[in-house]
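User: I'm writing a tutorial on reading structure tokens. Could you give me a worked example: one chain, its sequence, then its tokens, then a sentence or two explaining what the tokens reveal?
Assistant: Sure. Here is the example chain.
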Amino acid sequence: MASVIRRRYLGGAAAALGGLLAAACGEIEVRYVQGPAGPAGPAGAQGERGATGTTGAKGAAGAAGQTIVVEKEKPVVVEKPVIVEKVVEKVVERKASRLVAWTGPTIGSVGRGADLWTKLDALFADMHPEIQLTRSRPARPEGKSNDDVLIAAAAAGIAPDVYSVNVTAWQQARLVELGLPLALDRYYSQKPNLNRIYRWMREQARFNGRLYGVPHEMEFIALWYNAKVFEKHGLQIPSTWDDLMAAAQTLLNAEVMPIAEQAHWNYGHLYSLTLAAIGGKEIVDDIVAGNKRWDSADPIKAAEVILDLQRRGYLPPNPTDEGDPDYPMGASFVSGKVGMWATGTWSVGWMQQQANESQGEFAFEFSGLPSPTGTQPLESNLAGGSGGGHSVWSQSRLHEQAATFLDFLFAPEPQKAWIETTFQIPPVPFRVGDYNVSPGQRRALEIIHDARETGFGWSLDVILPSKVHAAFWPGVMGVLRQEITPKEMMARIQQLWEAR
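And here are its predicted structure tokens:
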């Protein structure tokens, strides 16, 4: 498949992708430039059955070639499919230093994300007037992923110079195999702010030995508590596993679901957090180094612990991939229907907003998960990694300008905007006292600051290769649905790990 993107676009594939792009990219105008006629086509298919039923005549000469040139932003109407029979080695033509970036919220949207990018746009224009930034995010057709839209744009020759993407190995694998992202290793060395990115964070963007993206957020998963519910029932934030079990039973007796999760991926977070509470970051580090196996005692124990929580009634009995309809999260958490939730720092801004608007009815706390085996100190029982990021299109003519834009995102002023506006923590050095944030956000900042050089226990979402990850979320859900055992789940993970 890589050769289709890099070396040869076949007529039928390009036509299909052109149709997808027409539906997805309503902000790009496509101009067709006449090229030489193509070669004669193959013999046509057999015609409809008639008097003789003979084979159709030889196909006519191929349609004239078309070169796609991005001119300006406006709604696009594609009246005929893009047909390109030979590779177009010439990269898409754009005005010099006009950088196109698919990042940030949809233009015209409102909210904290829109506020952040309004600030970043102004800062970039002031700091880099030599680069004209055109930022947009195309609409995504129903049933299609962001990757599908990006691949369609690349096939049509109109992908953006820079695009936001989850840059971890399993999430980048498909795009790397198709040749879309540029390897950025040299820019990490050359650009001053990219060079400051913590090594444990940049390594999460490595695939087949190269760095194909820039992670833009340090985050961690913790156990979050509805503080008002705990106060109402006379409970303290648990510091040991026995304390957690006692609190869960008290909540259950009061008809409060002790713990619930948002969807299958959130149950995966609960597994990552539990594994970190059993053995910290070292378990996964040892597996990656070949000194331990996924089907060894500790990874199996993590799945057994989650299953035991469910059997005790501390997790919903019938979770679906979309969560539990009786406990929609996080509404059920804010309302007090659920007491605890394993989620990440990406939720803290939303929780703080809910607390501010609740007139004192909702407050939250968070901590590491108490160790089920008593082997890990509470403060280290967190799982984390990279959240989101950016990559550069390999066929862009503006690699230097794109790298300059990425480097800008980690400069001190943009870093302050990231933290104070959306509470996304860029993976570069910072001082907690420099930022105006809420008490809950400040505590999260302090935890991230303390772990800035080494990281947390791993969120498996950022460490598993794509084929292994494809079995991870279904494996956790299969255990909770009692379709497979914890041992069977981890045996499958190990099998896929060895075949990666």
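What the tokens reveal: Residues 1-96 have pLDDT under 50 and may be disordered. The CA atoms of residues 7 and 89 lie 8 Å apart.
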